Amino acid sequence: MGCAGSTQSQAEGPVKKIRKPKPWKHTQPISKGELVKMREEFWDTAPHYGGTKEIWDALRAAAEADISLAQTIVDSAGVIVQNNDLTTCYDERGAKYDLPKYVLSEPTNLVEES
């Protein structure tokens, strides 16, 4: 895929269209502030799990964007989407990127802060 006119070959398989994760529930009710803190901690430590910082940055941008923009981001970064909800992805070198659902969507048991 070197030039602007090239297309994905059949050997590479179909491009997976990303979607929002299915509804999920945290182990206990969690506030928006706690969720934001968990997300920040994950993104701060994510590059230490392997892979490249550039791909982690692209995955963060995709996780925080709406679906159509997220699709453009992962396609542009060369991210290979294993699970349509972005929980498992690979880069072009084969490094695996696992994203927890809490960085991709909000839980069903999100509570108001008091």
Strand content: 5-15%
What is the correct CATH architecture of one domain? Answer: Up-down Bundle
The CATH topology of one domain comes to: Bacteriocin As-48, Chain A
pLDDT < 50 runs, ≥5 residues: 3-11
In CATH, what is the class of one domain?
Answer: Mainly Alpha
The main pleated sheet reads as: 3 strands, antiparallel
CATH superfamily of one domain: Ub domain-containing protein, DC-UbP/UBTD2, N-terminal domain
The count of β-strands is: 5
Shape: globular
Organism: Brassica campestris (Field mustard)
Pfam families: UBD (PF16455)
InterPro entries: DC-UbP/UBTD2_N (IPR032752), DC-UbP/UBTD2_N_sf (IPR038169), UBTD1/2 (IPR039869)
Protein name: DC-UbP/UBTD2 N-terminal domain-containing protein
Task: Describe it.
The structure is a single chain. The protein has a domain at 30-102: Bacteriocin As-48, Chain A, CATH 1.20.225. The strands form 2 sheets. It has a 3-stranded antiparallel sheet with strand order 2-3-4, with no helix packed on it. A two-stranded parallel sheet has the order 1-5. With 114 residues, it is an alpha+beta fold. The chain has helices at 32-45, 53-64, 67-77; strands spanning 30-31, 80-81, 88-90, 96-98, 110-111. Helix 2 (53-64) packs antiparallel against helix 3 (67-77). The protein has 3 helices and 5 strands; from the N terminus they run βαααββββ.
Quick overview of this protein structure:
The protein has 114 residues and is α+β, with helices and mostly antiparallel strands.
